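User: Run a structure prediction on this.
Assistant: Running it now.
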Amino acid sequence: MVAPPVQLTDLIVTVASEHADVLGRLTAAVELSGQLDELGDHLIGHFVDEARRAGASWTEIGDSIGVTKQAAQKRFVPRESPDLKPSFDRYTDRARRVVVLARHHARFSEHIGTEHLLLGLLDESGGLAAKTIAALEAAEGTTRLAVLTELDGAVRQRPDPQPFTAHCKKALELAVRASLRHGHTFVGTEHLLLGLLAEGEGAAARALDRTGVTLEAAQSYVVREIEAAISRGPRPAPRGA
């Protein structure tokens, strides 16, 4: 019998249940991740984020994972960059179109921000992210109006290559983490939405908060829709939406 793949949530629960303090959890995550690849990186990332939210300094975090403060920051603090990680190979067709649409919305900007990514998700109306927003927002179209107010109206020269903002890079990282937590091997529009919500500080998160679209509600809706799609017929689960 082939063992089921390990999910990020299982690893997080295992580490959290065995260690009470956040820095102890982080050290344990590093030890466990030595046996893993990408999943291990996101396991460590989860507990780095937890330690930071609990008030741990970068010096303490570096000590816990066996590196300097500077090395820890370099690895875990997202910076502006034109690189898209993971590559498009991991994205569904809809998710790829969302990034293309985000670039279009940012055509008069120096950066690609979370607000542009959210507009791309809304434009890709057949995706699960857009359907989730439509089901949860306070009234039809309010999320689009809210994010449009976040746009910088000034026209600027677009650099080549055009970088993603640090907030957008973090959201993309958290989108991958959302995919792994659900045991998926792809990044769909639903994961991009969950990443924007989990990032919590960018323009997209502010707009979604104003229209009542929360991370908890979005996660519940996405899980229900995927389970419903699976139950509707004897066919493999859809590869993202």
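The chain has a mean pLDDT of 89.
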